[in-house]
Specification:
The strands form five sheets. An eight-stranded mixed β-sheet has the order 1-11-12-13-16-10-9-4. It has twelve helices and 18 strands. The protein has helices at 4-9, 11-20, 27-64, 69-101, 139-145, 151-158, 167-186, 201-206, 231-235, 293-310, 357-362, 387-397; strands spanning 121-126, 149-150, 164-165, 191-192, 198-199, 218-219, 225-226, 242-244, 250-259, 278-288, 315-319, 331-339, 344-353, 365-367, 375-376, 378-386, 405-406, 420-421. Helix content is 40%, strand content 20%. The protein folds into two domains: 4-101, Serine-tRNA synthetase, tRNA binding domain (Helix Hairpins); 117-421, BirA Bifunctional Protein, domain 2, CATH 3.30.930.10. Helix 3 (27-64) packs antiparallel against helix 4 (69-101) and helix 5 (139-145) crosses helix 12 (387-397). It is of the alpha+beta class.
C-alpha cells in the first residue's frame, strides 16, 4: 500500500506514477476524502477536549450546589456530536484504505514505460539457443511419447490444466526441485522453510493478492486461500513484527505446490504444462534494508539465473516495463528460457523488488541501530525456479532425435546416475 502522507506531500508524483502504469490520476479524489477525514478526526478530538472541560465544570458546579443542568445538556450534545463525527471519520478512513488497497505500487525511476510485454527491455542473454539438427518437438509430445506424461487421466480426475507424471519424469521433477533447493540453501544462504499452503485473508492482503485479485485464487469452504506462490506465506513470516537492523537481510526459500485459477488465461497454453492450476515452484523471498534492496534484487536474480546456467540452458533477462509489472512490484526482472519446441523464449522466473509496498500492508518495520523510531523494510520475491516450466525446458532442450531425453549432468546425481530417459515400457 502507498503512503498517504507521501500522496499529500507529492500529489503530482503520485499521479505521474499512475500515468506510467496506464492509470488515471487519483490524487484529487483521495485528497478530498483525506481532507474530510482529517476534519472529522479533528472535530471529534476537539469535542472530546470540550467534554473533558465540561465534566470538570459539572463537578465544580455540583460541589458548589449550583445548577449543572445546562452543563449536562451541553455534555450530552457534545457526546452525540463526537460519536457522529467519529463514525464519519471511520467511514472516510475505510474509504481511503479501500481506494489505496486497489492502487498498484509506483514504478521505480529506471523502469521503462510501455503498455505491455512489447515495452520490455532485454538486459542480458546467456548462451545461444541450441541447434538440434532435427525438428524439435514440444514437451507434451515428448512426455506423451515417453508414456510418462498423462493429460487425459489428469483431466478425468481433476479437469483441464492438470497433469500426471510417472516414473522417470516424476523423478526428474523431484530432482529439479531438490537441485534448486540445495543450490539456494547450500551456496546462496537462503533458509529453507516448509510453510502452510492455506492462508488467511490478512496474509493474502499483505502481499497484494487481495482484494484486487481474488478471482485468480482458489478459496476453501473454511475461508482459507490456497497459495498462488510461496511468496505469500514466506513474506508474511515477518508480518506485524519489528525486526532488528542487524538481522537484515532475511532470506527464505521454499518448495511448495502453487494453485492458480488462471481466470484470465482462457485460450492460452491450453496444452501442456506451461499454465496449470497446480504446479511446483521453488520461491525466493528477501526481507531487506531499504538502502540495500536494489542490490538484493540483483543478487536474487543472479541466484535464479545460476540454476539455468548449471542446467546448461539458454535464457535472457528482461526488465519489465510499467504496463507489464505485477501489482506489488516497483521493479521486475523476468528470466525467459529458450524452448526449442515453441521456438521462442518463455518466462521461467520473475524477480521483483516491492520496496515498502508490502511491508506497509503487513505492518513490518525494523529498528535502526542508530537514531530513534522504526522504518519499513523492503520485500523482494522471485522464482528460483518454477519447477514445471524448468522440466519443460529440460525436455525440449535435451531431447534427442529418437524422442529420448538426455539428463543434464547437474541432475544425474539426483537421478541415480541415469543419463538418458527413454520410453516407459
Amino acid at each position: 500500500m502507498l503512503d498517504l502522507k507521501w500522496i499529500r506531500d507529492f500529489p503530482e508524483d503520485f499521479d505521474r506514477g499512475l500515468a506510467r502504469r496506464g492509470l488515471p490520476a487519483r490524487s484529487a479524489e483521495i485528497l478530498d476524502i483525506d481532507r474530510l477525514w482529517r476534519e472529522a478526526e479533528t472535530e471529534a478530538q476537539e469535542l472530546q477536549a470540550e467534554r473533558n472541560r465540561l465534566s470538570k465544570d459539572i463537578g465544580i458546579a455540583k460541589a458548589k450546589g449550583e445548577d449543572a443542568a445546562p452543563l449536562l445538556a451541553a455534555l450530552s450534545t457534545d457526546k452525540e456530536r463526537q460519536a457522529e463525527r467519529e463514525r464519519e471519520a471511520g467511514e472516510l478512513r475505510r474509504r481511503i484504505d479501500e481506494i489505496l488497497s486497489a492502487i498498484p505500487n509506483m514504478p521505480a525511476d529506471d523502469v521503462p514505460e510501455g503498455a505491455d510485454e512489447h515495452g520490455n527491455l532485454m538486459v542480458r542473454r546467456h548462451k545461444e539457443p541450441p541447434v538440434l539438427g532435427f525438428a524439435p518437438r514440444e514437451h507434451f509430445d515428448l512426455g506423451e511419447g515417453l508414456r510418462q506424461m498423462d493429460f487425459a487421466r489428469a483431466t478425468k480426475i481433476s479437469g483441464a490444466r492438470f497433469v500426471v507424471l510417472t516414473r522417470h519424469l516424476a523423478r526428474l521433477e523431484r530432482a529439479l526441485a531438490q537441485f534448486m533447493l540445495n543450490l539456494h540453501t547450500g551456496e546462496f544462504g537462503y533458509t529453507e522453510v516448509s510453510p502452510p499452503l492455506l492462508v488467511r485473508d490478512d496474509a493474502a492482503y499483505g502481499t497484494g493478492q487481495l482484494p484486487k485479485f481474488a478471482e485468480d485464487l482458489f478459496r476453501t469452504t473454511t475461508g482459507h486461500w490456497l497459495i498462488p506462490t510461496a511468496e505469500v506465506p514466506l513474506t508474511n513470516l515477518v508480518s506485524d513484527e519489528i525486526l532488528e537492523e542487524g538481522n537484515l537481510p532475511l532470506r527464505f526459500t521454499a518448495l511448495t505446490h502453487c494453485f492458480r485459477s488462471e481466470a484470465g488465461a482462457a485460450g492460452r497454453d491450453t496444452r501442456g504444462m506451461i499454465r496449470q492450476h497446480q504446479f511446483q515452484k521453488v520461491e525466493l523471498v528477501s526481507i531487506a534494508h531499504p538502502d540495500r534492496s536494489a542490490e538484493e534484487h540483483e543478487r536474487m536474480t543472479a541466484c535464479a539465473e545460476e540454476v539455468l546456467k548449471r542446467l546448461g540452458l539458454a535464457y535472457r533477462v528482461m526488465l519489465l516495463c510499467t504496463g507489464d509489472m505485477g501489482f506489488s512490484a516497483r521493479k521486475t526482472y523476468d528470466i525467459e528460457v529458450w524452448l526449442p519446441g515453441q521456438n521462442m523464449y518463455r518466462e521461467i522466473s520473475s524477480c521483483s523488488n516491492c520496496g515498502e509496498f508490502q511491508a506497509r500492508r503487513m505492518k513490518t518495520r525494523f529498528r535502526p541501530k542508530e537514531g530513534k523510531g522504526t522504518r519499513f523494510v523492503h520485500t523482494l520475491n522471485g522464482s528460483g525456479l518454477a519447477v514445471g516450466r524448468t522440466l519443460v525446458a529440460v525436455l525440449e532442450n535435451y531431447q534427442q532425435a529418437d524422442g529420448s531425453i538426455a539428463v543434464p549432468e547437474a541432475l544425474q546425481p539426483y537421478m541415480g546416475g541415469m543419463t538418458v530417459i527413454g520410453a516407459d515400457v
